[in-house]
Amino acid sequence: MKKISLRFYQPGDELVLFEDYTGDAHSSRFLAREVHQTIDETRCMLLKLSTEDSFRRYEKSVYIIQESNTGKPLGLITLVSFNESVELHFGICKTCRLQGIASLAVGCAVSYIFNELKCKSILCFPDRDNEGARRVLEVCGFQCFGEIDQFYKAPQISGELRTVLKFGLQV
Asked: InterPro entries attached here (predicted)?
């Protein structure tokens, strides 16, 4: 199994991430945004939200999931301030799926949120049909507290409001 870590953006990350995640329609299907059409869209998002002060400035921060030995980007973790909690989002590059990377990355993010950000709870709202995300959250100790209907739109799936599962984890 690969060793992974989380870090902020480094120039060049956008190339891999655009090709294998942010610009890939299948990889982005459960996201509440359109697929990135250019590498520059991915670069601009990372320049704004993947910095040491982005969480403080925007109450949102994007972390690169990297292979520890090579620094190669494997996906993204996004943290969003949500009342007294942190909302967690994660996505893995299409070439890195089904290798346990998402579970490792979520585990790293959980440690960071509880130990560094000193938050007491983490929330995650995966689409009801996103079985992979549900499995990762269960493996990482999150509990499902039910569904929320008409929570968000996933433009790659339909224009309809989608149902999510409400997962949580507390210290």
From this structure: Acyl_CoA_acyltransferase, GNAT_dom, N-acetyltransferase
